[in-house]
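[RESIDUES AND BACKBONE]
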Amino acid sequence: MFRKTTGSILCPSCGRLTHASAPVCLVCGRRNPGMWGFAGPLRQIFRTWNFTNAVTLACVVLYVATLVFDPLSALRPRGIFDVFAPSNRALWAFGASGSIPWQAGHWWTVLTAIYLHGGLLHILFNVLWIRQLGPKVEDYYGPARLVVIFTVSGVAGFVASNALDVPFTVGASGSIFGLLGALVAYGRKRGGAFGRFELQQYGQWALVLFIAGFFMSGVNNFAHAGGFAGGFLTGLVLSLAERRAETTVDWLLAGAAVVLTVLGFALALFAAFAR
């Protein structure tokens, strides 16, 4: 787990033995295979860390935190779809997105709002879908690429809905549609009978869920469409795990996504409480 700048390492591209300070890998020609000592720690983190479990935990912890932030509002009797719903004040403080926060200069909300939810059923359904689709995307692309797909999709979904003037919104559904989009991209890239099956299966799931969103109140269909597009395009750009092992670039992109998300929550809480 510690940074290694000397001695032998495994090249992150070809997996062959090389030197940490070598300018290029003598086997595959990759430049800076040791990535100045960060290749090993990054590889270890994203190969042992379960991102699906981490997202689940983050969503649950933040949901409870938004309830505790304004408990009287959360416990107010409401309809079945608004059971244990955090107040808008609590969601704003923790980084809800939408055109209103965006116009206030809260750019980080396109990251933080992914992990916030507006009610018990909202988080329950989203977490179940994340746990259904996350491991599949990880198998097909790799753990670091899963982080990139999930984050880019969520951001794309909120950017789309904010631009189309959805005033206030939260939830991981944009990222969930992005996971579906990445699985559709996988089917298209892989080809063959199995690829066609995956494309049809997950494409149908996405279509059914998207249409269902028009028959439910409060659903951000713009975020769903933007998230699917973001996941599909990211899936087309990233390599498949069966064709190319994850590289240092993949790990750096995933690390940047995690750091920016944590920074986003820090900015959200600072903006809410440092007055």
Remarks:
- The radius of gyration is 20 Å.
- The chain has two domains: 8-43, 49-273.
- The mean pLDDT is 87.
- The beta strands are 8-10, 17-19.
